[in-house]
Amino acid sequence: KAGVTQTPRYLIKTRGQQVTLSCSPISGHRSVSWYQQTPGQGLQFLFEYFSETQRNKGNFPGRFSGRQFSNSRSEMNVSTLELGDSALYLCASSLAGSNQPQHFGDGTRLSIL
Amino acid sequence: GENVEQHPSTLSVQEGDSAVIKCTYSDSASNYFPWYKQELGKRPQLIIDIRSNVGEKKDQRIAVTLNKTAKHFSLHITETQPEDSAVYFCAASNAGNMLTFGGGTRLMVKP
Protein backbone atom coordinates (compact mmCIF):
# COMPACT_ATOMS: atom_id res chain seq x y z
CA LYS A 1 0.00 0.00 0.00
CA ALA A 2 1.47 3.36 -0.99
CA GLY A 3 2.22 5.79 1.83
CA VAL A 4 1.26 9.43 2.20
CA THR A 5 2.52 11.43 -0.77
CA GLN A 6 3.30 15.12 -0.56
CA THR A 7 4.19 17.40 -3.45
CA PRO A 8 6.32 19.27 -4.08
CA ARG A 9 9.18 18.20 -1.83
CA TYR A 10 10.87 21.58 -1.93
CA LEU A 11 9.67 25.10 -2.62
CA ILE A 12 11.37 28.46 -2.63
CA LYS A 13 9.19 31.55 -2.52
CA THR A 14 9.58 35.23 -1.72
CA ARG A 15 7.75 37.29 0.84
CA GLY A 16 4.23 38.28 -0.17
CA GLN A 17 3.71 35.37 -2.54
CA GLN A 18 1.28 32.52 -1.95
CA VAL A 19 1.84 28.79 -2.11
CA THR A 20 -0.24 25.62 -2.43
CA LEU A 21 0.93 22.27 -1.09
CA SER A 22 -0.65 18.93 -1.93
CA CYS A 23 -1.16 15.73 0.05
CA SER A 24 -2.45 12.36 -1.13
CA PRO A 25 -3.38 10.11 1.80
CA ILE A 26 -2.96 6.39 2.15
CA SER A 27 -5.67 4.56 0.25
CA GLY A 28 -8.75 4.20 2.44
CA HIS A 29 -7.74 6.99 4.82
CA ARG A 30 -10.31 9.75 4.94
CA SER A 31 -8.78 12.06 7.52
CA VAL A 32 -5.92 14.36 6.58
CA SER A 33 -4.09 16.55 9.09
CA TRP A 34 -1.45 19.19 8.46
CA TYR A 35 1.43 20.13 10.74
CA GLN A 36 4.19 22.71 10.63
CA GLN A 37 7.64 21.69 11.86
CA THR A 38 10.29 24.30 12.73
CA PRO A 39 13.43 24.09 14.89
CA GLY A 40 12.06 26.75 17.24
CA GLN A 41 8.41 25.76 17.62
CA GLY A 42 8.61 22.04 16.95
CA LEU A 43 5.62 20.23 15.51
CA GLN A 44 2.43 22.28 15.52
CA PHE A 45 -1.04 21.28 14.35
CA LEU A 46 -2.51 23.39 11.56
CA PHE A 47 -5.83 21.75 10.71
CA GLU A 48 -7.61 18.48 9.98
CA TYR A 49 -9.97 17.64 7.17
CA PHE A 50 -12.47 14.81 7.04
CA SER A 51 -15.16 14.27 4.42
CA GLU A 52 -14.22 17.54 2.73
CA THR A 53 -14.86 19.49 5.96
CA GLN A 54 -12.43 21.11 8.33
CA ARG A 55 -12.92 19.22 11.57
CA ASN A 56 -10.24 20.78 13.77
CA LYS A 57 -8.13 23.92 13.55
CA GLY A 58 -4.93 24.92 15.29
CA ASN A 59 -3.78 28.33 16.36
CA PHE A 60 -2.52 29.74 13.07
CA PRO A 61 -3.54 32.97 11.30
CA GLY A 62 -6.14 33.01 8.55
CA ARG A 63 -3.37 33.15 5.92
CA PHE A 64 -3.18 29.39 6.38
CA SER A 65 -6.08 27.54 4.81
CA GLY A 66 -6.83 24.16 3.40
CA ARG A 67 -9.35 22.02 1.65
CA GLN A 68 -10.10 18.40 0.94
CA PHE A 69 -11.46 16.85 -2.18
CA SER A 70 -13.94 14.01 -2.59
CA ASN A 71 -11.08 11.53 -3.14
CA SER A 72 -9.63 12.60 0.27
CA ARG A 73 -6.66 14.38 -1.28
CA SER A 74 -5.95 17.63 0.50
CA GLU A 75 -4.27 20.91 -0.25
CA MET A 76 -3.09 23.65 2.02
CA ASN A 77 -2.55 27.23 0.97
CA VAL A 78 -0.50 29.96 2.58
CA SER A 79 -1.07 33.49 1.36
CA THR A 80 1.05 36.61 1.81
CA LEU A 81 4.09 34.57 2.79
CA GLU A 82 6.32 35.80 5.62
CA LEU A 83 9.90 34.85 6.44
CA GLY A 84 8.61 33.01 9.51
CA ASP A 85 6.60 30.65 7.34
CA SER A 86 9.80 28.87 6.37
CA ALA A 87 9.28 25.35 7.68
CA LEU A 88 8.70 21.71 6.89
CA TYR A 89 5.00 21.17 6.27
CA LEU A 90 3.90 17.65 7.07
CA CYS A 91 0.70 15.93 6.14
CA ALA A 92 -0.63 12.91 8.01
CA SER A 93 -3.50 10.63 7.12
CA SER A 94 -5.58 8.27 9.22
CA LEU A 95 -8.71 6.18 9.10
CA ALA A 96 -12.07 7.69 9.88
CA GLY A 97 -12.87 8.19 13.54
CA SER A 98 -11.21 9.94 16.44
CA ASN A 99 -7.70 9.28 17.65
CA GLN A 100 -6.72 6.96 14.86
CA PRO A 101 -2.99 6.37 14.24
CA GLN A 102 -1.65 9.07 11.94
CA HIS A 103 0.92 8.30 9.27
CA PHE A 104 3.09 11.09 7.94
CA GLY A 105 4.33 11.96 4.50
CA ASP A 106 7.87 13.15 3.77
CA GLY A 107 6.78 16.78 3.93
CA THR A 108 7.26 19.86 1.81
CA ARG A 109 10.24 22.03 2.75
CA LEU A 110 9.19 25.65 2.18
CA SER A 111 11.85 28.35 2.17
CA ILE A 112 10.93 32.02 2.08
CA LEU A 113 13.51 34.47 0.77
CA GLY B 1 -5.56 23.95 25.15
CA GLU B 2 -3.38 20.93 25.64
CA ASN B 3 0.27 21.36 26.57
CA VAL B 4 2.81 18.53 26.39
CA GLU B 5 6.24 18.73 27.98
CA GLN B 6 8.96 16.23 27.14
CA HIS B 7 12.20 15.39 28.97
CA PRO B 8 15.07 15.12 28.49
CA SER B 9 15.75 17.14 25.36
CA THR B 10 18.88 15.08 24.68
CA LEU B 11 19.81 11.62 25.87
CA SER B 12 23.05 9.75 25.28
CA VAL B 13 23.33 6.05 26.14
CA GLN B 14 25.73 3.21 25.45
CA GLU B 15 24.65 0.51 23.07
CA GLY B 16 22.78 -2.18 25.00
CA ASP B 17 21.62 0.17 27.75
CA SER B 18 18.01 1.24 28.27
CA ALA B 19 16.60 4.67 27.44
CA VAL B 20 13.60 6.34 29.04
CA ILE B 21 11.83 9.45 27.76
CA LYS B 22 9.10 11.11 29.81
CA CYS B 23 6.18 13.34 28.89
CA THR B 24 3.55 15.17 30.89
CA TYR B 25 0.28 16.55 29.57
CA SER B 26 -2.11 19.14 30.91
CA ASP B 27 -5.55 18.20 29.60
CA SER B 28 -7.12 15.43 31.66
CA ALA B 29 -9.50 14.73 28.75
CA SER B 30 -6.60 13.52 26.56
CA ASN B 31 -7.03 9.84 25.81
CA TYR B 32 -4.62 8.94 23.02
CA PHE B 33 -0.82 9.07 23.28
CA PRO B 34 1.37 8.15 20.29
CA TRP B 35 5.15 8.18 20.01
CA TYR B 36 7.02 9.06 16.83
CA LYS B 37 10.61 8.51 15.77
CA GLN B 38 12.13 10.93 13.29
CA GLU B 39 15.49 10.24 11.73
CA LEU B 40 17.42 13.09 10.17
CA GLY B 41 15.72 14.29 7.00
CA LYS B 42 12.95 11.71 7.22
CA ARG B 43 9.28 11.64 8.10
CA PRO B 44 8.06 11.07 11.67
CA GLN B 45 7.33 7.38 12.01
CA LEU B 46 4.73 6.05 14.44
CA ILE B 47 6.47 3.51 16.67
CA ILE B 48 3.91 2.83 19.39
CA ASP B 49 0.75 4.33 20.84
CA ILE B 50 -1.40 3.87 23.93
CA ARG B 51 -4.95 4.75 24.84
CA SER B 52 -6.17 5.93 28.20
CA ASN B 53 -7.90 2.65 29.05
CA VAL B 54 -4.54 0.85 29.07
CA GLY B 55 -1.67 1.33 31.51
CA GLU B 56 1.14 -0.27 29.56
CA LYS B 57 1.86 -1.54 26.06
CA LYS B 58 4.88 -3.39 24.70
CA ASP B 59 6.22 -4.07 21.23
CA GLN B 60 9.50 -5.99 21.23
CA ARG B 61 12.16 -3.64 22.68
CA ILE B 62 9.76 -0.71 23.03
CA ALA B 63 7.22 -0.11 25.79
CA VAL B 64 5.02 2.78 26.80
CA THR B 65 3.49 3.37 30.23
CA LEU B 66 0.67 5.74 31.11
CA ASN B 67 -0.25 7.22 34.49
CA LYS B 68 -3.55 9.04 34.04
CA THR B 69 -3.68 10.27 37.62
CA ALA B 70 -0.32 12.00 37.33
CA LYS B 71 -0.89 12.88 33.66
CA HIS B 72 2.36 11.50 32.44
CA PHE B 73 3.50 8.81 30.05
CA SER B 74 6.89 7.36 29.22
CA LEU B 75 8.70 5.56 26.42
CA HIS B 76 11.10 2.78 27.35
CA ILE B 77 13.60 1.36 24.88
CA THR B 78 15.60 -1.66 26.03
CA GLU B 79 18.81 -3.07 24.57
CA THR B 80 19.40 0.09 22.55
CA GLN B 81 21.12 -0.16 19.17
CA PRO B 82 22.85 2.52 17.07
CA GLU B 83 19.88 2.52 14.68
CA ASP B 84 17.70 3.72 17.56
CA SER B 85 19.50 7.07 17.31
CA ALA B 86 16.90 9.65 16.25
CA VAL B 87 14.61 12.33 17.61
CA TYR B 88 11.61 10.96 19.48
CA PHE B 89 8.36 12.89 19.90
CA CYS B 90 5.51 12.18 22.27
CA ALA B 91 2.03 13.53 21.56
CA ALA B 92 -1.40 13.71 23.13
CA SER B 93 -4.91 14.03 21.76
CA ASN B 94 -8.31 14.33 23.40
CA ALA B 95 -10.60 14.20 20.39
CA GLY B 96 -10.52 14.15 16.65
CA ASN B 97 -7.04 13.83 15.22
CA MET B 98 -5.46 16.95 16.63
CA LEU B 99 -2.09 15.92 18.07
CA THR B 100 -0.21 18.17 20.47
CA PHE B 101 3.48 17.27 20.41
CA GLY B 102 6.20 17.47 22.98
CA GLY B 103 9.41 19.28 22.12
CA GLY B 104 11.31 16.13 21.17
CA THR B 105 14.21 14.11 22.59
CA ARG B 106 17.40 13.57 20.64
CA LEU B 107 18.57 10.06 21.48
CA MET B 108 22.16 9.14 20.71
CA VAL B 109 23.24 5.52 21.08
CA LYS B 110 27.01 5.18 21.21
CA PRO B 111 28.47 1.92 19.89
Please identify the structural class of chain B as seen in this structure: mainly beta
Q: What structural class should be given to the helix and strand makeup of chain A? A: mainly beta
Helix content of chain B: under 10%
Number of helices of chain B: 0
Taken in chain order, the helices and strands of chain B follow as EEEEEEEEEEE
Biggest β-sheet strands, sense, barrel of chain B:
6 strands, mixed
Count the DSSP helices of chain A.
Answer: 0
The largest sheet of chain A is: 7 strands, mixed
Which segments of chain B are poorly predicted (pLDDT under 50) over 5 or more consecutive residues? none
- The radius of gyration computed from the alpha-carbon positions of chain A, rounded to a whole number of angstroms, is 13 Å
Between the first and last Cα atoms of chain A, what is the distance in angstroms?
A: 37 Å
Q: In terms of quaternary structure, what is this?
A: heterodimer
| Large-scale geometry of chain B | globular
Strand content of chain B is over 45%
What does this structure look like?
The complex is a heterodimer of chains A (113) and B (111). Chain A is an all-beta fold. Helix content of chain A is 0%, strand content 53%. Chain A is built from no helices and eleven strands. In chain A, strands 2, 4, 5, 6, 9, 10 and 11 form a seven-stranded mixed beta sheet that branches. The N and C termini of chain A lie far apart (37 Å). Chain B is an all-beta fold and 111 residues long. Chain B has no helices and eleven strands. Chain B has strands spanning 4-7, 10-14, 19-25, 32-38, 45-51, 56-59, 62-67, 72-77, 86-92, 100-101, 105-110. In chain B, the strands form two sheets. In chain B, strands 2, 4, 5, 9, 10 and 11 form a six-stranded mixed beta sheet that branches. Chain B has a five-stranded antiparallel beta sheet with strand order 1-3-8-7-6, with no helix packed on it. The A-B interface holds A 4, 31, 33, 35, 42-45, 48, 50, 55-56, 58-59, 90, 92, 94, 98-107 and B 1, 31-32, 34, 36, 42-46, 49, 51, 89, 91, 93, 95-104.
